[in-house]
Each structure stands twice: as C-alpha cells, then as structure tokens.
Amino acid sequence: MDNILNQIGIENYIFLSVVLFCIGIFGVLYRRNAIIVFMSIEIMLNAVNLLFVAFSTYHQDAQGQVFVFFSMAVAAAEVAVGLAILVSIFRNLGSISIDNLKNLKG
Amino acid sequence: MIHIPDFAHATTVQVIFCFLAFITVITAFLTIFSRNPIHSAIYLVICFFSIAGHYLLLNAQFLAIVHIIVYSGAIMILFLFTIMLMNLNEQRDVHRPRITRLGAIVSFCLIVIVLITIFINSKPIVGEYDSTGEDFQSIKVLGKILLNEYMVPFEFASILLLVAMIGTVLLSKKEKLNK
Amino acid sequence: MNTLIAITGLGIFCLLFEILNFRKGIIPFTILGLLGVLALNFYEFGSTESYYNNMITVSKFSTSFSSLFIILTIFLVALSHNFYENHPTKISDFVAIKIFLLAGGVAMVSFGNLAMFFLGIEILSIALYVLAASERLNLKSNEAGMKYFLMGSFASGIILFGICLIYGAMGSFDVVEISEYSLSAELPIWFPIGMVLVTIGMLFKIAAVPFHFWAPDVYEGSPALTTALMSTLAKVVAIATLFKLISSLNFIPSLENQDHLNTFENIIIFISIASMTVGNIMALRQVNVKRMLAFSGISHAGFMLMTFLTAATSAGVLLYYTAAYALAGIAAFSVILYVCKNQNDEDITNFHGLGKTNPLLAAILTASLLSMAGIPIFSGFFAKLFLFNQTIQAGHITLVIVAVINSIISVGYYFKLILAMYSKEPNQERTGKPFLIYAVAIVSITLNIALGLFPSLVLDLLN
Amino acid sequence: MEMDTNLALLLVLTPFLGFLINVFFGKSLGKTVSGIIGTVAVVISFIVTLVLFDQITSTGKAIEVTLFDWIQISNLKINLGFLLDQLSVLWLLFVTGIGSLIHLYSISYMHDDENMHKFFSYLNLFVFFMITLVIGSNLLVLFIGWEGVGLCSYLLIGFWHKNQDYNDAAKKAFIMNRIGDLGLLIGMFILGYTFKTLDYTELKQTILTIHYEPQIAWNVSIAALCLFIGACGKSAQIPLYTWLPDAMAGPTPVSALIHAATMVTAGIFMITRLNFVFDLATDVQTVIAVIGAITSLVAATIGLVQTDIKKVLAYSTVSQLGLMFLALGFGAYEVAVFHVITHAFFKACLFLGSGSVIHGLHGEQDMRKMGGLRKAMPITFWTMLISSLAISGVPFFSGFFSKDEILLTAFHHSIPLYVVGSVASIMTAFYMFRLMFLTFFKEFRGTEEQKHHLHESGSLITIPLIILAILAAFGGLISLPGHSWLNEYLAPLFTKVAGEEHHLGATEYTLMGVAVLGGLLGILIAYIKYFKQDNVPESDENITGLSKVLYNKYYVDEIYDAVFVQPINVLSKFFRDYIETGLSALVFGLGKVANEIAFQGKRLQSGSIGLYLFVFVLGMCAIISYIFLAQ
Amino acid sequence: MNVSTILIILLIGAFATYFSGDKLASKVALLFSLAALGCSIVLLNNYNAGENISVINAWITQPKISFALNADGLGLAMVLLTLALTPIIIFSSFGNEYKNAKGFYGLILFMAFAMTGTFLAADGLLYYIFWELALIPIYFIALIWGNGDADERRKAVVKFFIYTLAGSLFMLVAFIYLSQKANGSFLIEDLYKVELSACEQFWIFLAFFLAYAIKIPIIPFHTWQANVYQKAPTVGTMLLSGIMLKMGLYSVIRWQLPIAPLAAKEYMNIFIALGIAGVIYGSIVALRQKDLKKLLAYSSLAHVGLIAAGSYTLTLDGLRGAVLQMIAHGFVVVGLFFAAEVIFRRFETREIAELGGIRTQSPKFTSMFLILVLASVALPSTFNFVGEFTVLYSLSQINIWFAVLGGTTIILGAYYMLRMFQHVMLGQTNSKVFADVTLSEGISFAVIIAVLLFFGFYPKPITDLITPSLETILQVINKN
Lengths: 106, 179, 463, 631, 480
Known about the structure:
The complex is a heteropentamer.
Chain A: H1 5-8, H2 10-30, H3 34-59, H4 63-93
Helix pairs in contact in A: 2-3, 3-4
Chain C: H1 2-19, H2 26-44, E1 49-51, E2 56-58, H3 60-83, H4 91-109, H5 114-132, H6 139-170, H7 175-181, H8 190-205, H9 214-221, H10 224-248, H11 251-257, H12 261-283, H13 289-305, H14 315-340, H15 354-357, H16 359-373, H17 379-393, H18 397-423, H19 435-453, H20 456-459
Antiparallel strand pairs in C: 1-2
Helix pairs in contact in C: 1-2, 1-4, 2-3, 3-4, 3-10, 3-14, 3-19, 4-5, 4-10, 5-6, 5-10, 6-8, 6-9, 8-10, 9-10, 9-13, 10-13, 10-14, 12-13, 12-18, 13-14, 13-18, 14-16, 14-17, 14-19, 16-18, 16-19, 17-19
Chain E: H1 4-19, H2 21-48, E1 55-60, E2 65-69, H3 73-92, H4 101-120, H5 124-133, H6 135-145, H7 150-181, H8 188-193, H9 198-215, H10 223-231, H11 234-259, H12 261-266, H13 268-287, H14 292-312, H15 316-347, H16 363-376, H17 383-398, H18 400-425, H19 439-457, H20 460-477
Antiparallel strand pairs in E: 1-2
Helix pairs in contact in E: 1-2, 1-4, 2-3, 2-4, 3-4, 3-11, 3-15, 3-19, 3-20, 4-5, 4-6, 4-11, 5-7, 6-7, 7-9, 7-10, 9-11, 10-14, 11-14, 11-15, 11-20, 13-14, 13-18, 14-15, 14-17, 14-18, 15-16, 15-17, 15-19, 15-20, 16-18, 16-19, 17-18, 17-19
GO cellular component, one term (chain E): membrane
GO molecular function (chain E): NADH dehydrogenase (ubiquinone) activity; NADH dehydrogenase activity; ubiquinone binding
GO biological process, one term (chain E): electron transport coupled proton transport
C-alpha cells in the first residue's frame, strides 16, 4: 500500500495542525465566553491529535494513534471537570464571561 | 521546502486534503467568531467531522470512528447541554474591548509566523516516505498495542477518569454543612 | 512500580471507606497506608528496573523524589482532618483525590514513556483543578479553579503539542529510545521544538516567569489546604519532572550537538533571574499571606531552575532544595491553616500578636520563613548554598550574584510576617490546640532542621 | 636597687593612696580628717623627695627603676619605669613642696565646701599624676602623667559643677590640652619610628651615636615641632593659651598649684627633658623662641586691663611661661628651669594671696570692688607685695635673677626678641602693681556687708603664704649670676657644655640695669595711674578703643569659636540632618524603589485571564524564536 | 576537654533558660554564662599549657565542610571577651523587668553561643553559619523588647537585618568561590593556601569588605547603627556594640586579610582612609546628637573606624592594637550603655537636653560614669589607651598623616564625650530624684572599670596571648 504522505507531504499536515493549533490559541485569547474558550482548547487538542495521526503514518507506527486515545480521554476528563467548574461559577455569578473573573488580582 | 500545490495535476487525494483542510480551518475560525454559542458548537462539530475525514484519509478508520463518537457524540453534547442549561445566547456575550482583540490577533499572527518560519527553515524531509506495507493501524494491531505495551497507561487513564468523576461529583454535590 | 500500584489501591480504598461509612478512620488509615507505601518505596530504593515495556522506570531519582512526595502527602492528609471538619460527607473524596494526585506525581517522576508522563501530569492537574474549585459556594474558589483550569489546559495543550513533535521526530514515546536517537546528528528540528514546548508547559506548572500569572490568583483563591498542596507537592512534582525530562531525554547533549545549548542556557538563566526577581519584588507588597507565599514560590522556582544549568550533577541538589522548600512550606501552611481557620481571608493582620498568644506556632512559622529566606541552620540555607556552589562551579557567577540580591529582597517580605507576629498586638483569641496541625508543624520543621544539620543524608542519595 | 624601687613607689603611691582613701572614705571621715590625710600624703612624698634629692646630690647618679613591660610594639619596648635624675628630683621638690603648702592652705580655704574630701582626693590624684609625669622613664609614662594632670585640671576647674560656665571652662581646658596631646603623640610616633625607642636614656644614647642622614634630621625637626605643640597645649602658649585664663574658674588653690606652679610647667619640663632632641632642631628652637616671646607680650598686654584679680594673675602666668619658652628657644634650658622655680614660688604665693583676698571678700574677684585691704589683711598684703616685687624683677628678689638671665640670653641671640621680652617685663611690673594698688590701697569699694566682714585669713592660710613669700624673696639664690648652683646641678643633663656661663661684663650689667629700670618704670606708671590719680578701671560697657580689644583678649576666643568650634558644630548639624538622613534615605530608597516596582507590578497582575495568556503566548514566542531563529 | 564544651554549655544554657520559666530565667542565664566563662578560663589555662583544645570533625562530605573549631590566641581572646561580657550584660539587666523573660535571656545566651562560634570557627562555612545565627537573636531582642515607637523600631530593625544580611550573603558567594579554588574544601587552612590572581582577590576582598563594613560598621555603611542602638533594649545594644561589632573586626583579621593579601596590600590606603574618615565623621556627628544612646552609637562608629584602620595597616602593631582596642572598646561601650540604662531606669528618658544635675544626687554613679567616659576617650592608664596608642602608632608607620587624622579622635572624642558628660551629669541639681546606684549596678560597673584599669597598666597577658596567632596570620599575608 502506498504511503499517502507521498502525495500530500508531512509538511502540509504540520502546517495544517500548526494553523489549527494557533487558531485554538487565538480563540482562547479572543473570546471572553468561557464555553467558547473551552471549545478553542478542544480545537488545540484536535490539532495535535491530527498531527499524531499524521506522524503515525509517517513512521508507520501505531503508537501515535494509541496516544490519541489517551489524549481523547484527557480531553473528555478535562471538559467534564471544566464544565463542572463552569456550572458552579454560573450558579454563583450568573455569568460565564471570564472578564467577570477578576476578583483575584494584585 | 514548502509543497506548492499543483492544482493542475492534483491527485484526488490532494484535492480531498485541500478541501478538508479548508473546511477544518474555516469552521475553526467560525467557531471562534460566531456570536451565538450554539452556532459555535455546530461549527465545531463540523470541524471535528472534517478532522475525522483527515483520519479517514490517513487510513485510520477506527480512530475516525472513535473520534466522532467521543468528540461529536460526547464532548459536543456536553457543551451543548451546558449551553442550553445556561440559556446562553448572543446577547449574553459581553462586549470585547478592542485591545483584547488586537492582542489576540497580534499574538495569533506572531505565533503562526514563528512556528511556520521555524518549520520552513528546518531541514526538508527528503526522499520517499517509506511504506513497510505492514499493517499498523487496524483495530487488531491497535488493540494489541493498547492492551499489551500500553496496558499501564491504559489503566492509568482509568484513574484519570476516576479522578475526573470524583472531582465532578465533588464540585456539584450539595452537602449538609454542619457549621 | 509497586509504589504506584499501592498508592492507587490506597486511593480506591479511601473511596470504599465512604461506602462502608467509616469516615472517622479514614485519615489514620490513609496515613498508615502512606507510611506503608513509604516503607515499600524505601525498599525499592537503589534498584534500577523498568516495568511493563518500560512504562515505569524505577531509579534512585524516582524513588527518592517519590519518597518526598509521599512524605508531603502524609502531612497534607494529616492536615485534612481539621480542614475538612465541616465537610464530613466529602472527606473521603478529598483524601482520595489527594492520593490519586500523589499517584500522578509518582508516575511523573518514574515515567519510562511519555504517555505515562502525560497521563500523570493530567491526573495531577485535574485533581488540582478540582481541589482549587472545591469550595463550591465560594466565588473566590470558583474563580481560582476556573483560572487554573483554563490556563492549565492551555498549557496541557502545549505540552501535548510538544510531545507530538517529539514523537514526530523520534517515532517513539519510549524514553530510552528517544534518548538514544537524540544523540544522533541527523535530528529533525521537531525534537528540540517539541522539547522546548514541553518545557514551556512545565514551566507553567512550576510557575516560572513569564508563565507565572496564574499562581498568585489561584493560590489566593483556593482553599488554604489546596494552596499548601500546590505550593509544596505540585511545585516539587513539576520541577522534578521537568528535571527528569530534560536530563533523561538527553536534551542538553542533543542541543549541544546542534549548537543550541548556549541559547537554551541563556533562556534558563533569563527565566531563572526573571522568576526570582518578579517573585520577590511582587511579594513585597502583598498583604494576603497565601498570595505572598505564591510569589515566594515563584521566586523559589527561579532558584530551582538554576539546577538545570548543571543538569548532569545537580539532581541531589534539586532533591535537597525541593525537600527543604517543601518542608518549610508545609510547616508554614500548617500554621496558616491554624491561624486562618474561621477567617474570611489569610490577611496578614490575622497573624498579629501570634508570638504572644501562641509562641510555639509563631516560632515554627518563623523558623519556616527563615528557612525559605535561607538563614543558616535551617535547611533552606544549605539548599541555597549547594545550589550556589553548583552554579558557581558551572561558571555562572553573575546568576549567583543576582540570586543573592534576590535572597536579600526576599527577607523583606518574610520578615513582614515575622514582624506582624512579634511586634503587633494580638487582635483575637484563638482557642484549641488541634493535635494534627501541631504534629505536622512540629514534625515538618524538625525534619527541616534535621536536614539542615545533616545535609549529607539527602544530598548524597543521588550522588 | 630594691630600695630605690620602694622609694620610688612610695613617692608615687602615697598621693594615690591619699586619693583612694579620700574617694572611698572621705565623706565619712569628715572634712578636717580628709584634708589632713590629703596633706600628709603629699608631705610624705615631699620627704621622700628630700631623701632622693640627698641621694642624687651625693652620688650624682640617676636612679632608674623598671617595674614591668607595659605596651608592646614591634620595634619599641615600652616599660612602666621611673627615671629619677637631677631634673626630675628638682621638679619633684617644688611639686611636692609647693603641693604640700597648698594642701595645707586648702584645709582652711575649702573648709566651707561640702565636697572638701573630693577636693582633696582630686588634689592628691593630681600630685600622683604630676609625679608620674616627672619621674617617668620614657615618653609614654610621661604621657600618662601628662594626660592625668589634664584630667585633674578638668576635674578641679569644674569643681563647682553646678555652674555650667565653669564646666565649659573645664571642658575647654581639657580639649585644648588634648590638641596639644595629639601633637605630643605624633612627636612620639616620629621619635619612636626614627630611633626605635622612647626611653629617655636610650633615646639620648641613640641620638648621640646615630649616623646622621637628612631624613633623620628632618624627622627630628618634625618630631620636635610636634612635641612643642604638645608643650604649647599644656603650658598655654599661643595658639593654645586661651584655656588658662578660663581655668581660673576653679578654686584658687587649684589655680595656684596647677595653673601656676606645676602643671603648666610640664611643657617646659618635657622640652628640657628632651633637650638633646631640640638641640638638633635649631629651626624649631627659633619657632619656640618666637612663640614664647609673642605669647609673653600678648598675654602681658591683655593682663594690662583685666579687672578680675585671678585673670590678671592668669595672664601674667601665660606671659611668664612665654618668657620661659623664650629661654628654651635659645637652648638655655637651665635658665628656663630657673625661672620655672622662681615663678612657682612667687606665682603660687600671688595666687594664694589672691585666694586669701577672695576668701575674705566671700568670693568677690573683681578688683574694682576691692581696695584698701592692706589694713584688714596685712599678712596677705605683705606676702603678695614681696611676690609682686619678685615678678616685677626688682633686684635681689628671686624673679630678678631668673628673668634677667632670660633677657640676657635673649639679648645674646636676638635683639628683637630681647626687646619684646623686655617690654613684656615692663608691662608685668605695671599690671602687677596695678593689681596691688587696686586691691590693697585706697578705700574699700565693695559693699558694706563685705566691709563688715573683712578679716585676715587663718593661720593655715597665712603660713603657706609666708613660706612662699620667703622663697619668692630668696629663691634666686640657687642660681646667682656667675656662680650658679643650679647650672652645676643640672649640668649632667645637657649635651652642650652646660650653661655657657655668661661672663658678667659691662653689657650684662647694662642690661641688668635696663631691666631694673624697666621694672621700676612699670611700677611707677601703675603708681601714678592708680595711686596718684586714683583711677579705677571703667565698668565693662564703658571700655572703648584699644583697651576694649585688650579687655576682650583680642577677641581670640571669639575668633576660635567662629573659626573652629562653630564650623564643627555646623558641620555636625549638617552631617546629622542631611548626610545621615540622606544615607539612610538611600538605603531605604532601595527598598522604596522595590516597593514601587511591586506596586506597578500589581497593576500588571490584573486578574484578567486574557492578559495572562497573552503574556504566556508572547513569552512562548520569544523563547522559541530566540532559540530557533536567533542565529 | 576542648572548645566545643563552651558552645555546648551555652547552647544548653539557652534552652535551660527558656524552660526554667520567667522567674528563674535571669539567674539561670547568669549561671550558665558564668559557667561558660569558667570553662573558657580553664581552657585558656590548658591552651597556655600547650594542650590542643581545637576540634575538627567531618560534617558534610560534598562540598567538604567540617565542624572545625580552632582556638588560637586570637580566637580565645575574643571568646574571653564575649564570655566575660555576657555575664556582665546579663547581670546588668537584673534591674529591669522584662516581659517573657525566659525568651529574652534564652536569646541572649543563644547569641553568645553564636558569637563564640563565630570566633572559634575554622571552617569558612561553619563560620558563616555562626555569623548569620548571631543575627537572629539580636533581631528579636531589638524587635520585641526594644523601646520607642513601634513602627520606627520595626523599620530600624528590619533595615538592620536586611542590611547586614545583604553584606554577608556576598561573603557567602566569596566563600563558595574560594572553596572551589580550594578543591571544594572550606577549611581555613585550605582557603589560606588558595592562589588567586590579583583580580580575583580584589573581588573577594570586596565581597568580604561589604559584609564586614556593614557589620563593623565603616562609613558609609553605618546608617543602620544609630537607630538600632537607640531602639534596641540596652542589653541588645550592649551585645551589638560590645561583641557583635567585634565579629566584623575580628573577621577582617582572621579571614579577609589573609585570604586576599594582595588586594589588601594594593588598596590598603583606601581602606585605612575609610576607617579614618569614619573616625572623623562619627566624632563630628556625635557632637550634636540629642539622644544619649545615639551619641554613644556614633562614638562607637568613630572608635571602630580607628580599629578597622589599624587592622588594614597589615602590620603587627596595627593588628595587635586593633585587637587590644576591640577588647577595650567592648568593655567601655558596654559600660557606657549600661550607664545610659541606669539613667533611663530613673528618669525614663535619654534625651540629653532633659538630663543634667545628676552629679549632686549620685556622686558614686558620676565617678563611675566619668571613668568610663575617660576610658572611652583613651586616657592613658586605661586599657583603651594601650589599644589606641598602638593603632595610631601603626598608622603613623604607614603615613604620618593617617596618624594625625586618626588622632583627631583624641580631640573630637574628648569634645563630644565631655560635652555629653557635662550636659548629662553636671549642672544644676535635677528636679527629678536620682536614686543612687544599687549594689548590682555597682558591681557591673566595678567589674568593667577594674578590667579597664588593670589591663590599662598591665596588658601583657592579652598581648602575649594574641601575638603568636597574629604573627601567624601576618606570615600568611606576607607569604608571597
């Protein structure tokens, strides 16, 4: 079976995931809505996952794909905990804008 | 060296890749720029699907399925659920100060430029990508690796999920305060 | 490996205790269990083995740091008794989370595969997010949890990206393999980039400048015991892990091969100086003790980073420094827990007149602060001494001089607290002498002083 | 040898013992007993001195006593030891002798003072230190005594310590002395460094045998100059003389003993002692002569217009000391010593006499309020008259011989200085008789109350007066021109052919005549002005012109105050208020700067996650680009 | 028996005092301090008999740090000074009531422990540890039992602590650097043997100088001094001025000069000049002080300036004079501060302007005070004269102008001290009652005065004790 990377090139995958990763970073910085920020973080993680798979193909090695499973587990756990925190903030504050979280400073 | 796409002689795979990449990037941006969180979530789902498409393109079918199940199926539902629970709509989104946006854009450009430049400057990967022809990404192989070599991390991931579970319970459980 | 299994088992037992409705015994049992684990860990000391396809490698480094983590966890669990008095239904959760956190920490220093490292750091982080936000009705706690979570998962993303690039370069997650490949001349640039990204992520965890902003806010907002945990256990785990990453992946030799070493060292020096300076100067104006200790922790992170300049030989120094710092931190926090119980905040005014109302605890807090400031006979002094010794040996005398100047600045705020205790009039009555808090404070400060009197005990473990 | 040691110790320690007894038990012993103890202590010393004197005159050999090593300095060895030779025994004679008389006098004089035991203890301490000064075998032991007598002078000037003016005077005396002491110390350092010894005998040996190089000659000159500064301080020479008149604040016996007869001659003693050093420094000798002459003239002019009886005597003392230095400057040490002795007699007598007057008037010292005391106090009057005649150089009184020798010496060396000295002598005669006329003649000008109580003092006061008057009258016999016992006695001390006996030729007799005439002229003017014309000095505010300048002592005190004291005080305030505060602020400033940075930094720590992440990303970019793009 | 016995006695004493309770604390502390003094005298005898009373034990292997206490004549002399002054200081405080006396006296003994250790330590790091340890007790003594406005006091004390710590940390860096040159050893003999280039010596010298200049203090590093002296309780002031300053001066002789002799020789004149500038500056500032303790502080500044100048001459006389003067100054300054305390006990003030007229009420006290004042201005026949003379003599060997300028202390010292004496003790009888000195106060004074006068006439025992070790140090200095 031909390696698909011969047609696309690993660089392109790297660029794609770098851009995607950076979009995630951008989202985190750009949005004040905590939910969207969470989503941006998910985009970052997915960018990495994509790269893992690409590298896995590049090395013809399954470990990269296995790692993606762990990464997914982590993402799920993070989202669960994050949303739990978000919910309790929403209950206390009535808002999920991270701009309202400025009590601790100085 | 950067691979300049040669659209005239593009293979199918290349066209699909470009298309998927385009969708991924656009929907990712749309996720961020949408005013309505629900729209964001929808765009994100599309984005995840396109990433699953990439996985398929890379011949990682099992992973693509899992990806769709976990992300689109579980995580996004969790998001949507929360959004609806909080009854968020676009009016709720507070005004973003210009300086924030500027900062975000600046840092975005900066990091993209830096990373891309580094990768471009780096030694190009020369030659053919070797293909052993061995099966390395079927469910069977993955299962073997995951449950043989990676047994400990696999178990350890369960601890991670356990912690997340306890944590979530801890954060949401009401209790009688005996003060 | 056995240690890790034992710890995990202990965590699950803790959860079972809740089901069995045996809350009262949970803390004594856990402490006993942890002592058992500690013994087990000692038993493992000296052997160099790897388990399960090299997922976990046990070495002197990992066992000695694990022992330190276990000891710290014992103290933290002991402190939980009084801290969670008002949350009887949740106590098993809290204890279990701490135990799992310890498991994450142990995994982080004994990883043989980057997957273990990543999972370990995630367990640690998620447990910390939960603990930070654990006072669900307290907005400050919520905010702290949220901040920590957002920034922490951001950092996790970066670490993950770094791991991915390392994998891309090496085609493996195995530490041994990576360290072998990393010495080869034909190395894609992905590897150093990946390493740098992982390093940045870890620098965030240890709160080094400019990735430190979360620390003061989170330390201030979190429940005091969580702050104690973050500033002692979590910080120590992170720095030890980063040290292990950099040294066991042969990162520095590989940089040397590619003529990047100089710039990398400059970065370390810069971050170290910046952390020390920012931490110390910012701490000067703080009135919240937890916040002050957060900045102090930032500055100590700067000091600890100095060991990276001599990574080949400085593992013992790092162990000593972290032990000295963490023990002093535990002693300080146990006093803070006592003083600020039933207070809204940890403002420095709460400490007024402690020297009169409670001379023993005041003395312990003073001793721990003096240790952090690096005054002789406390182990903090020897830690700095060995650190400076190493660093001067490596020829970075300017860095040492900056560190010295920073030590001087640090005295300024440590003494603010001491002054408050001894030269102000007491403003409140404190009753009760909770046994466990006293015990933890006394034992930890005694250990600290013992380390100071016999530094070779710890220092020679890793030499 | 053993015997000598014991004698020397007895000599020194008896007054010290007296001091200790009076300090610890004086109060409980009662005034009279403590006075007697003090006196007896000095008398014993006097007797010991007589024994020693006898021994010295018979054997002609100096007695050296070494007690133990005192200070170790690498190339110097300093013993605590005594040297009893002709010079020191001679000095001891009048120190202990006059000391005994004054102690005796004080028993009566101080009887009304509640702290009489203290007075005696101080006096004894003074005698102790003075003896130490005189008999020390090296410069450092001399220095013990030197500073010790300064201390006693301080204590005794400020004896009436409730009056801060007196305390000021005491302090001034001590500090001016200390300026001199520094000179002395420096002189010692140079000597020690050049000759590796401070012991008189060894020093003399070394100097006589050493090979001369310009450097050593230079060192010796500087050392001599420094030593002379020391002598200036102690012996009240220009520019360090202003303390002596102020020192009259102390009780009169103190003025007699310390500020006339003994302590102030320490400078002369020291120079005489080190004559072999000064002989090598001829330039310095010239300086000494000039300073001595000027001092004698300046002090005499000031003395002309003073109205305080003790001040007159004080300036007279300064003037006479100036004359002694004049003699020293010409290397005529024995002449100076001769004048020291006669001066001790008549000046002590004058002071004690004035004390008697003051005692009789219950503390009044202003001559304008005296007058006509001749009848009420005949003994005082007669003894003082004798002494005044002596100081004025009236022939055949002791002062005539000694002063004449000085002027003679001066004439041989330098005519201008001779003239200055002579003028000073004429003035001396004038103001002394001015004093006599104002005090003892005419009508009493004080209050009725005082007049009522006028009486002659008791026998304890008059006996010392009489003895001193006799000595003042006949003391000159020890060194008659042409046949000087004193010169022979002192001869072993000097390196030069001792006291070039002035051939008594026509010049000498002419000069003698001139001096006598000058003295008589002074007396005559005083007679005309204050007896014939019945002038009384104006009250303070009416004094004008030159006499105002003189009355105010040429404003030297004010000048010193403005030039030295005030600047130091201003400097002190400046240092205290600005430099100290500034330095302190500098240190605190560093802390403040750190605090200010912290304050600004707190604003950066704004609590905004966006900002935090922004910095995070920027930091990350910076690190990555530094590592990978910086090449 | 070796010198560690003294340290053990003092350390045990500190704890025993703390646990003996408030009532007994002062007596227990006195007892232990006297025991330590006795022990040190026995050791002195043994030392003079040629017995080896030094200790050396391995402590930390890597870097090589030993628990090495070396008792040579110099060290013993300083230890004797410390241990002789400690009982006096403790005894002098019997007239005061202190809150929490057990802590107070415990800290005093602990400080004596640390200072003794500093004087004995023969390992750079051990020395440094003791040096720093001595700082902590005095910090608390000044902070808790001090007087005056609490805020001002805090400021002064913290400044003092940070300032002195700042200096000594640079010394630590120098030590580490040196040990590296000495193959990881901190032992003093090894450090003496290190061959350093002129440049290295310069920096090391400077690092040491910073530590010592602040501790001694030499101008312009003295700004902490006057305030702390004023604010600290008198016991603390006595400890600081009587003993702690001497730690700095001792260290100059023991550590700084032999380790960096080239630099010491090269820059000798500058450092002598600094010391002498301190003499003049301190004296002038002292003139116009309003507070008695501050005045004494500045006088102390002047005196230690002279001692420092003497040490930097690098001559045997200079060193010997410096050591003699250190001991003498230790006693005098303790006595003077005690006098200030005696006045304070009766009048509750130290403002010079508010004092005066004490002499009529208490001649006994006046005499003792006067003797101390005179000793302080180095009247011959007091111990101080011996020291000052020797120092000035050594200065004159370097340059006569140093001696002249340094000698101004004789004049200016007399000026400010007598001025102070006049305004504090003399003048019209004070309207407030000045009770005569009590027996215990009298004993303290008497002991100090006896020491000063005895050694003023017979300093030989001390000179003989210190000279051999000073000669050894000079040999090290002049080795190349």
